[in-house]
Design goal:
With about 160 residues, the chain is an alpha/beta fold. Helices cover about 30% and strands about 25% of the residues. The longest helix is centred in the N-terminal third of the chain and has 17 residues, at about 40-55.
Length: about 160
């Protein structure tokens, strides 16, 4: 596992707000934090920065090496009274991870809730969370520790 991921996972349970510290980039240079205003912006980011490279034939980013892990708040349809991320991700080449496709090597981008993915891991994890706090620190910890090489944390403000 990437040493920055191990280091961050040991910090996150004690200090979840470390993700918002102005020195985060200095302390964890290999972990990207991306801020989005709403779930529609998260969808646009996923399509542009993750799905498009996966679809390109000469890209080193492969769907089977990636997972989008989503904080449960965004999958319940209760986030700010609007649609949930599951509805927004009804896009070609994106599908929810299930028992039947967990071992599938198709070049598709899959997503799951953080807690459903506990015990599994992928090379590249894209973690969608709300503002870090005591309430979601466990999901953040689990999500971060599912990554082997890279983790990008997408915070929805």
């Amino acid at each position: 596992q990437n040493p920055d991921i191990r280091k961050l996972s040991s910090e996150i349970l004690e200090h979840p707000v470390i993700l918002e510290d102005e020195n985060f980039e200095e302390w964890f240079p290999n972990i990207d934090i991306n801020r989005q205003k709403n779930l529609q912006d998260v969808k646009s980011h996923i399509v542009k920065r993750i799905l498009t490279p996966i679809r390109e034939t000469d890209s080193s980013l492969k769907g089977q090496d990636c997972i989008i892990l989503i904080e449960s708040t965004f999958l319940r349809g209760s986030y700010k009274g609007k649609e949930d991320l599951r509805e927004l991700l009804i896009i070609r080449d994106i599908e929810e991870l299930t028992e039947t496709n967990v071992g599938d090597t198709a070049n598709k981008l899959r997503y799951s809730s953080v807690l459903k993915f506990k015990g599994l891991e992928k090379k590249n994890v894209f973690l969608v969370i709300s503002k870090p706090s005591e309430l979601n620190k466990y999901e953040i910890f689990v999500g971060i520790t599912r990554a082997i090489l890279n983790v990008e944390i997408i915070i929805v403000d």
